[in-house]
Amino acid sequence: MKRTVLSAAAAVAVLASTFASPVFAADQDKQFFEGVQGEWSGAGEVVAGKYKGTKFNCNFTGSSHAQKVGMALDGSCRVGMFTQVMSARFEKNGKTYSGTFLDGAEGKGLNVTSGNVTGDKAVFGLHRAQLRGAMLARLADPETMNVTISVRVNEEMVPVIGMSLKRVDMTAVGAIAKN
Question: Is residue 44 part of a domain?
Fold first, then answer.
């Protein structure tokens, strides 16, 4: 009995170290980013702040890096007659992420200063001067991506922008192809 318990414990330890390894984490992250590839379109709304209640529509192209773990979203959002070009780039550096939202904190955008991918969602830390925030991207299913941008107010994260995007291309996701 003692030998069986030790063998089971050793097997669990080996499996735990395998799944916790950086290689497995990179594969899991890469899988998420591959799910974001393709054309996306959908509506969003400013849910807090000066422009609360403003509705907009966005179109994005998602792509993943060929040699690195990361992704890019490029496109635009429209409010009435006005269109704003949008872009975000994330790349894994060691155990976290870095990148830019729009043209980064040096321009009119934000820097991506951290990140984590878990299953069907990715959370990226955003920073510009005294502003700290986060972007959450969640693949609700292969055809739906929800994005929330929140900012830190005192010690609380407050959602500011929310959008729901639908896949509008014929990109195959995993082993299931869209007809």
Answer: yes
User: Would you give the DSSP letter of residue 21?
Assistant: S
Beta-bridge mates of residue 131:
128
pLDDT digits (tens, 9 = 90+) for 65-79: 777 888 888 999 999
pLDDT: is 10 or 150 the higher one? Answer: 150
Return the pLDDT at 111: 94
Inter-CA distances, 28 with 3, 11, 83, 96, 162, Å: 34, 22, 34, 14, 25
Q: Half-sphere exposure of residue 102, counting CA atoms within 13 Å on the CB side?
A: 14
Return the CATH number at 147: 2.40.128.20
77 vs 80: CA distance, rounded Å:
10
Q: Does the pTM of the predicted model rise above 0.70?
A: yes
